Amino acid sequence: MRNKEIFKGKKITIVGLARSGLACANLLYKIGAQVSVTDNEQNAATKKLVSQLASKDIQVELGKHSKDFFQGRDFIIVSPGVPAGSMPFVWAKEFGVPVISEIEAAWFLCPGKVIAVTGSGGKTTVTTLIGKVIEASGRKAFVCGNVGRAFSGEIEKIEPVDFVSLEVSSFQLENIRHFKPLVAVMLNLSRNHLDRHADMQEYLEAKERIFMNQDENDFLIFNENDPVLKESAKTAKSKVLFFGNSSDFDPNQQAVLAVAQVLGIDKECCLKVFREFSGLQHRMEYVAEINGVKFINDSKATLAESTIWAINNIKSPIMLIAGGKDKGVDYSLISPSADGKVKAIFVIGEAKDKIEQALKKCFPVKKALTLEEAVRKAFIQARPGDCVLLSPMCSSFDMFANYEERGKTFKQIVQNLAADYKLSSIK
User: Fold this and answer.
1) Is 403 helix (H, G, I), strand (E, B) or coil?
2) Strands, E assignment, 246-380
3) Sign of CA dihedral 314, 320, 321, 325
4) Are 307 and 393 in contact (CB under 8 A)?
5) DSSP state of 395
6) What 8-state DSSP symbol labels residue 156?
7) CATH homologous superfamily for the domain 285-422
8) Is the distance from CB of 129 to CB of 152 less than 8 angstroms?
9) 390 φ/ψ angles, rounded to the nearest 5 degrees
10) Fold of 9-97
């Protein structure tokens, strides 16, 4: 671990006790910081997280944010879910306390080489594949960030010769100051998170922060088929590489190949990883087949573009389940791909009315109060040979803790449905 002196003995408040907040609190406490944690939620989940803190000396408040937790601090570290303009930011500014993100705190302490991946879609797949390719080349890789494991939680295991494949969101990039990855990857840019960002320009500017501290010794990898990103490349100080000019590989694979080129990893090593890669949970994940109807879990799809990809890669007629918390997505984008292929759309969550308005002229749209109701309605209407596809085009935070919980719930509902169907068939 490097740069421990930055945080040792300092008074630090961490805002948000979720996966990254917990990991960051424990890491900083272990290196000698005076740590406090504040979270405006007070429920069974946050109470369980409190029990996982490294020491009772870590001061905790739940169910609110108090001004006292911000006065006299050396740093405020915010979790990705804390929006700019909220009271923690107001108080930090009032008291002149610097605000940084969890990935910045972890980066300061990380002795390994960081490869950071961002974009509107494909981040988790590319981050995972980069880690697998590095490991296949005989080196050690830590895959973390939005992909599942918090960056802070891995720091103590990382050696200087190791690599970190880090998935980063625009939310995490908003509050970096010095974060400087050896390799930055920008996959694409499409309408996303406009519930958080004022417009596409603000969203782009948040993404561009991934390379703002890079210099001529670093590498920046762009999708050359994205005109906005291609323009952004002109402002970079780092060495710029482009991907997107091959018909033999999909864009995610091309991005991985570009990273491998920077790291000096043989192409054949990448091809072997691609062949053996079985995909990710919650991304086009086959769940079951009931009476000739297949169920696919694509809970990771939080963009219209992701759902278009799913529709294009399913050959059978589709009963689409969509909805959740709206992120400013243009749902009508799916219409050309869905035309003649999607038989009906079952909508749930806060965005159900907006999705209905966008698509009701082209498709039958049916509302459901819960995911289970949507699944059962879709199954009743489906015929043998059809596919029930959960591909929400929305975030999960109105009904679930995250997309993983949403996907797991979908799979459990399908398993229960299969058991019910089997029982009724026996009768």
Assistant:
1) helix
2) 285-290, 293-297, 318-323, 342-348, 365-367
3) positive
4) yes
5) B
6) G
7) Mur ligase, C-terminal domain (3.90.190.20)
8) no
9) -90, 105
10) Rossmann fold (3.40.50)
HSE of 253, CA atoms in CB hemisphere, 13 A: 18
pTM for the model stands at: 0.79
Give the CATH superfamily of 104-276: Mur-like, catalytic domain (3.40.1190.10)
E strands in 250-325: 285-290, 293-297, 318-323
User: How does pLDDT run across 278-293, given as a tens digit for each residue?
Assistant: 877 898 999 999 999 9
What the block records as the tokens of 335 is: 């219409």
In the block, which residue shows the tokens 């007070």? 42
Length of the chain: 427
Name the E strands within 74-194: 75-78, 99-101, 113-118, 141-145, 163-167, 183-186
State pLDDT tens for residues 141-187: 999 987 778 999 999 999 999 999 999 988 889 889 999 999 999 99
In this chain, the answer to whether the domains covering 9-97 and 104-276 adopt an identical fold is no
Domain segments of the chain: what residues?
9-97, 104-276, 285-422
